[in-house]
Amino acid sequence: MSLTFTRGSVIAVAMGLALSGTAQSQTAPYAAQQAAAGQLRDKALKGSIAFELVESLTTEVGARPAGSAAAHRASDWAVARFKALGYDKVTVETFPVPNWQRGIETAEVTVPYPQKLFITALGGSVATPPLGLSAQVVLFKRFDDMLAQPEGSLNGKIAIVTERIVRAQDGGGYGAGYRIRGLGAAEAAKRGAVGYMLRSLGTDSHRVPHTGSMTYDPAGTKIPAAALSNPDADLLEHMTDRAVPVTVKMIVTPTFGPDLEARTVVGEITGREKPEEIVVIGGHLDSWDLATGAIDDGAGVAITMATGKQILDRAERPRRTVRVVLWGAEEIFKAGAAFAKAHASEVDRHIIGSESDFGGGKVLKLALPAGLTDRAFAEALGRAVTPAGVLMERTPALGGGEDLMEINAMGMPVASLRQDGMDYFDWHHSPDDTLDKIKATDLDQAVAAWSAFTLMVADSAVEFRAPKTAAK
Amino acid sequence: MSLTFTRGSVIAVAMGLALSGTAQSQTAPYAAQQAAAGQLRDKALKGSIAFELVESLTTEVGARPAGSAAAHRASDWAVARFKALGYDKVTVETFPVPNWQRGIETAEVTVPYPQKLFITALGGSVATPPLGLSAQVVLFKRFDDMLAQPEGSLNGKIAIVTERIVRAQDGGGYGAGYRIRGLGAAEAAKRGAVGYMLRSLGTDSHRVPHTGSMTYDPAGTKIPAAALSNPDADLLEHMTDRAVPVTVKMIVTPTFGPDLEARTVVGEITGREKPEEIVVIGGHLDSWDLATGAIDDGAGVAITMATGKQILDRAERPRRTVRVVLWGAEEIFKAGAAFAKAHASEVDRHIIGSESDFGGGKVLKLALPAGLTDRAFAEALGRAVTPAGVLMERTPALGGGEDLMEINAMGMPVASLRQDGMDYFDWHHSPDDTLDKIKATDLDQAVAAWSAFTLMVADSAVEFRAPKTAAK
Fold this sequence. Notes:
Oligomer: homodimer
CATH architecture of the largest domain in chain A: 3-Layer(aba) Sandwich
Number of helices of chain A: 14
Shape of chain A: elongated
Distance between the termini of chain A: 41 Å
Strand order of the largest sheet of chain A: 3-2-9-5-6-7-8-4
Order of helices and strands of chain A: HHHHEEEEEHEHHEEHEEEHEHEEHEHEHH
CATH class of the largest domain in chain A: Alpha Beta
Number of strands of chain A: 16
Mean pLDDT of chain A: 94
Helix content of chain A: 25-40%
Low-confidence stretches of chain A: 3-25
Structural class of chain A: alpha/beta
Largest sheet of chain A: 8 strands, mixed
CATH superfamily of the largest domain in chain A: Zn peptidases
């Protein structure tokens, strides 16, 4: 999961999809679909293949940055798995991605208290000189404090921002803090800084820095940028609180090369009545390079592949086609545009989409598109998922995931199955994103929620696009 | 804290120091001492200087392996602090220690699933060839499974043991698992292995391996030895569960040099009536090289220095002398013998000793020496500490800390103030041993317990040695 909270931060007008508390009657219009969804839900709650899938991907492939040899092993893995699971059609969509390779990354305080620091370069950062960059630091406890500084005020300095992100179940703290990573180096360079470091966008207290993408001002100076582990950010605060000059030496040596080929893998379950109508679910196959990518996003890959398997195991295919899409370059924001471009001619036939990209925790809430007007369907879907512990969100979905942003902008409605992310940013984008952070029973619950949702939308004729109104 | 549980594992015969439940009467023989101890306790609970001390040591010095330049900065820091706090006498005791320097440490699975592993060399390990050691691994989920293998069965292999230690409030899991680290390389080499790795002796699930000392069989082959982080041990289990050959490449390049000089710093509070009678408290000033040494043992240094300060702040000195000893080489088991040797002529005048070396958690229990026969004193001491949340242990102390082992063996009685170590082995000996793991209020509680204990034993004439009985 990367940048959903900021890139998708358009505030939609709530459509007021308040769900009434009316008791389920035998004449409910979607009773049969609800019952079928309930069967899949309960089957998943008894155990799904999701944990086995994420165990396999993290063990046999591990870290798989977009376009890398490992990413190609991951796409081979996905193709083989889709076929073995009995998906009706498996395709691979390729597209170019930038080639940024991490190098050495070390840092230390040299004056006045020599100590080692744990850092990691941000994705896209330029390198320091090979023997490092030594400079006095200027530390800001709030990002806004740095933004308040005039041009030239950081000349020759390494700027450090140690603002903490807020722990929140919905991950909102990451969205609020994102600019510190994404824009910090550009803003520091504007003020004359020669290097930039931030406290990791992580809620943990371990010596594991969290990487992630950042962007430079194309017209500005590009300065090396790295994340400090939380304890190291604390240490620098303690040192600078003493009001003595602190000098840090940082070495990061990433390299850039010719574009690589990324691969998005699609497993299709072809609809029995309306095969041309497409429901998209999925996760992203690429990961950062520091860990095995269990929660980001092996979990989403596993949840949605297992959801497809649940649907394949039924006696008949759903009315509409279900595509499980494993995007090949989410972390660097390239897969969504490539996907939208590849499917531009069939956007109108994409009924609804949703990406699972928030770890392996339980699904707590389901938000539906603003365009849905069939209240009875929403109520039946609510009754299908609530026994698994999922409540219906009272406001419409704002985004369906990073990789669906562009096709959503082209008109495909999106839903959001919101997971418990209370611990997600303890591990996200850090070496700690490993299999032990996932509970099989939580994954099974997520498969239950995704199965009920996917079957009900695929095995119906419900529309999620807002009805077209005549221009006034 | 290092090896207390194994080196001190002599099972003492319980003396049956059962504390009666009799109500406190106004004629209690130690009522005045108990009241004075209670005043120090309550003062500490309102706030002590302990957190400020550990913040200072970890910020201004940080990692301080025995004999290093940083350890010398730490001893300078301790001398200056003791003087500034008004201790009556400050001395430095020097002694030689081995010189082992960590080098590069990397590892990776090369076949069949290329993945990086997070390792750290064990203290005292020999190096691999500079370009690394590549070999097929043989993984044992229990150490005893490796011990059951015949000689020659591991020829040319890297032996890996992934047994987990048990999380326990008293740290007993570390004691039970210690041999896996201490003796594993020697046992693997006996069976023909060319390298050895173990799951870190840590209860966490982070990508931070835990180092620590190990010993070779002097007559055996010395093979390189390293600890894997817990998630990496899991990963290797998952790979080897597939019953395919797994090859690992490890590089560790530690070096050995001429002995270094370690320094133990002693701050004395000279007794007003019996200055020749000595009560020893303290912690160890050295730390491992991977972190700032906050819990191991900046906390113990801070707790006992602050305890001394509490006693110094009283209107008069206690009857006996109190020495706060900051040992200079606990992690490599050298300070205790040097201390016993330096004080061999005055062992009989060492009334009692205790070392604080189990982190920054609350003191939960106080165990007194088996030789104490003055039941009224034990009861009064119990009543002095219990309001701080400290219970009296019903069995005698088995050890007073790693650095007191030798002088204890020479006759000095020891007490044990047992802390809550439920989380201690999440961080111990790893890069995660940093200041954020310590709560100031917990340190203050420990200072309260140590202050009540120290004042009561120093401001009394109570004996802790078992009375001598005539030979039969």
